[in-house]
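Hi, here's the filled form for the chain we discussed.

Project: internal
Contact: R.S.
Residues: 108
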Amino acid sequence: DIERARRGRVREAVRRKTEDEEEEARRKERLLFATQELARRRIEEEERQRKMEEEAESRRKMEEMKRRRASQEAFRKRAAEEARQRKAEEEESRRKTEEAARKRRSEE
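And the returned structure, exactly as it came back:
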């Protein structure tokens, strides 16, 4: 009887130990899964952030190119207008010089 009771207590102790070990294994598995899930989310967030930064940089470069192009176009227009004005002034000056020379010849 005593031996049977002792074996029962041993069996119960072994069963509890096994259950505790199984519960610990499940806890470690859940912890591992949670850790992996956090790492996956962090990686996804970093990737999303990197993409947003790349898109912002791309937009910034595009805007800079547009500004540069507009500035160059304005410079070309200004240079063309100045050249046209210079040519008109030179033409006016040449015309006045020719007119003055004709006037002198007609007076002589």
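Let me know if anything looks off before we file it.
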